[in-house]
């Protein structure tokens, strides 16, 4: 049986900033219909990988393909048009627009009416506007914040602001949703709700690729996990495989200091 071609593939991707190699010969495949997580210590190069995928940076070497098309050389808005949507570690909302307006803005890449069609308010322009409003409502309802549609983004709680950013990304109708630390700053209840939202997104047919530090979230929802350290991939596999990998335990999840000292002293550890 032939293995299905991955939706997203990175092959030997590297990126330098001056004398620092932020990403070093990085390989990763993201399977269609999966939830894939990228984890690692702060400064490991995870967000740089996202920036390379979404056109903010260009790799110094390597290949990035999405749906069998090369991404390298695309500008960020072209990457969105290709079907990759993104949220950011630091929220980037239109603070003085309503929730409805924020999500409506996320559909800009899918709207085709030109300047004159808008000025003349043509029938096709009107139909496109109806579709955009309907899609905005769908996204807000799916994220559980339809009741906040007329609230300014700046007035929302932190958890609802996270939901709004995901709703705006979803409005672009992506094939791949990339989430940069979506659980950052959330309490346990909000994290549980987020996990359910991400599962529902995956089950709707959208592939999810996320960076996350909350191991409860990562291990609770991921189909596949990759681990970075100092720009390189040091491990990947299922959540269970990654959790039991000694390299991951040492580099990221941490080894108990007392156990480590006993090992160095040559004592057996039960």
What would you say this structure looks like, in words?
The chain is α/β, with parallel strands linked by helices and 270 residues long. It has two domains: 32-57 and 70-83 and 174-270, P-loop containing nucleotide triphosphate hydrolases (Rossmann fold), CATH 3.40.50; 96-173, no CATH class. The chain is built from eleven helices and ten strands. The chain has helices at 46-53, 76-82, 99-105, 115-120, 123-142, 158-170, 188-203, 215-221, 239-243, 246-253, 257-264; strands spanning 8-17, 20-30, 35-39, 61-66, 69-70, 84-86, 176-180, 207-211, 224-229, 232-237.
Calculate the terminal CA-CA distance, rounded to whole Å: 43 Å
Strand content: 15-25%
Biggest sheet architecture:
6 strands, mixed
Shape descriptor reads: globular
Structural class: alpha/beta
Give the second-level CATH assignment, the architecture of the largest domain.
Answer: 3-Layer(aba) Sandwich
């Amino acid at each position: 049986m032939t293995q299905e071609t991955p939706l997203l593939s990175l092959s030997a991707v590297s990126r330098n900033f001056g004398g620092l190699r932020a990403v070093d010969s990085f390989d990763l495949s993201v399977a269609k219909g999966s939830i894939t997580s990228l984890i690692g210590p702060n400064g490991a190069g995870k967000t740089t990988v996202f920036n390379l995928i979404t056109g903010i940076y260009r790799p110094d070497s390597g290949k990035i393909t999405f749906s069998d098309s090369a991404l390298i050389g695309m500008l960020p808005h072209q990457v969105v048009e290709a079907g990759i949507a993104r949220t950011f570690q630091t929220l980037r909302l239109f603070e003085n627009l309503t929730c409805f307006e924020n999500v409506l803005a996320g559909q800009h890449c899918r709207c085709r009416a030109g300047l004159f069609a808008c000025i003349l308010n043509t029938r096709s322009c009107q139909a496109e506007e109806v579709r955009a409003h309907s899609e905005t409502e769908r996204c807000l309802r799916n994220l559980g914040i339809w009741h906040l549609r007329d609230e300014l983004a700046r007035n929302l709680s932190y958890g609802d602001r996270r939901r709004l950013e995901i709703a705006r990304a979803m409005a672009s109708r992506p094939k791949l949703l990339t989430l940069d630390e979506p659980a950052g700053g959330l309490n346990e209840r909000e994290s549980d709700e987020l996990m359910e939202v991400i599962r529902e997104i995956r089950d709707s047919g959208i592939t999810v690729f996320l960076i996350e530090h909350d191991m409860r979230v990562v291990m609770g929802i991921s189909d596949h996990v990759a681990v970075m350290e100092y720009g390189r991939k040091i491990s990947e596999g299922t959540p269970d495989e990654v959790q039991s990998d000694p390299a991951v335990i040492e580099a990221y999840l941490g080894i108990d200091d007392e156990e480590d000292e006993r090992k160095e002293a040559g004592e057996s550890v039960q």
